[in-house]
Amino acid sequence: MNVLVINCGSSSLKFQLINSDTEAVLAKGLCERIAINGSRLVYQPAGHDKIRKEAPMPTHIEAISMVIEALTDPEIGVIKDMSEIDAVGHRIVHGGEKFDSSTILTDEVYKAIEECSELAPLHNPAHLMGIDACKKIMPDTPMVCVFDTAFHQTMPEEAYLYGLPIEYYKKYKIRRYGFHGTSHSYVSKKAAELLGKPYDQVKTIVCHLGNGASCCAVKYGKSVDTSMGLTPLEGLIMGTRSGDIDPAIVEFIAKKENLDIAGVMEVLNKKSGVLGVSGYTSDFMDLEVDSLAGKPEALLTMKVFAYRVAKYIGAYVAAMNGVDAIAFTAGLGENNRYVRTDICAYLGYLGVELDQEKNAVRGEDIIISTPESKVAVMTIPTNEELAICRETVALLKK
């Protein structure tokens, strides 16, 4: 079965075509700047270089059309025609409390995603545009929705409730939902495999560290706590997002800077995080290079970031009453050995010891702690697209 995995943003569309039998990626790519001047398709068939094509994409419909054209092109394509796409798997950021697992797309499911848009106004409307485009171009192809929030629906009340009037939860469903669920699920399963233990007998803390970042406590195969909350703004310091702050700061900044709520939220979402602390960049690669060169702003920012991650790890050790494995994933977690070293420097109380030679390895599922380490530390490249493909096939086979 060939599964087209789609991840839509408001002006972008990431895709992979995966053969579910072999789990090989036949082709992947990105449509950039949809509805903006200079839109283009970046397309890479397996075993070949990237191909870039600029063309107007007024909507996601044109973007999907270009993807299909590339996939079926006689010279650069990987399938003969659109009929060889057996299913589409859509990544959906927010499913609220409505979905605790992936589901086949129906009119009722579509409406429920729409209703969750107020909880994820930057993401869910974009996902719906991608669904609309796919339905228009391939109306007879079955589609599955895989929700970032679904994995975290196993959190207990004490983990997901805020210290707010309970009627806000009852009326508006204000609670911690968590995100990156597909990644946390995939990585925690891989961690159990690396340990050689059953998934339901392992306590794992997954650190998904990238421009968006979150930690998750996975106890015996279930998410019991996670750092992101009602929205992806809560938790760790991220590329441009503040993470946890004192709520009174919102009023303080509004008064001092003469901003309304929308203005303050713009600051917290797009001008804060490592960009705000460093004062010059949200790119962790820049920070890595500059911190190695001794730039004070970069050194401070990386220290602040590592400290926040280490605090969450400590909290989740308490939440699970112990931990067997700590897994680092996503762009920063997988590739930056210095960040991993700085975080693990706080974990001596757990008996954590890193093997620095293994810690230097990139892009592999590998245990980077020493045999003497009381807790296994590992890097596991996340593969959300493969996880979405697997979910799609499993549902359709039912």
Automatic annotation (TrEMBL):
Annotated compartments: Cytoplasm
EC annotation from Swiss-Prot or TrEMBL: 2.7.2.1
UniProt xrefs under Gene3D superfamilies: 3.30.420.40
Superkingdom field: Bacteria
Protein residues bound to Mg(2+): N7, E384
Residue positions binding ATP: K14, H208, L209, G210, N211, G212, G331, L332, G333, E334, N335
Pathway per the UniProt entry: Metabolic intermediate biosynthesis; acetyl-CoA biosynthesis; acetyl-CoA from acetate: step 1/2
Active site, per annotation: D148
Pfam families on file: Acetate_kinase
Family matches, as InterPro entries: Ac/propionate_kinase, Aliphatic_acid_kin_short-chain, Aliphatic_acid_kinase_CS, ATPase_NBD
Top-rank EC class of the record's enzyme: transferase
Keywords: ATP-binding, Cytoplasm, Kinase, Magnesium, Metal-binding, Nucleotide-binding, Transferase
Site residues by UniProt (Transition state stabilizer): H180, R241
Cofactor note: Mg(2+). Can also accept Mn(2+).
HAMAP family (alphabetical): Acetate_kinase (MF_00020)
Subunit field text: Homodimer.
Family, per entry: Belongs to the acetokinase family.
Chain's role: Catalyzes the formation of acetyl phosphate from acetate and ATP. Can also catalyze the reverse reaction.
Stated name of the protein: Acetate kinase
Upper taxonomic lineage: Bacteria, Bacillati, Bacillota, Clostridia, Lachnospirales
Underlying gene: ackA
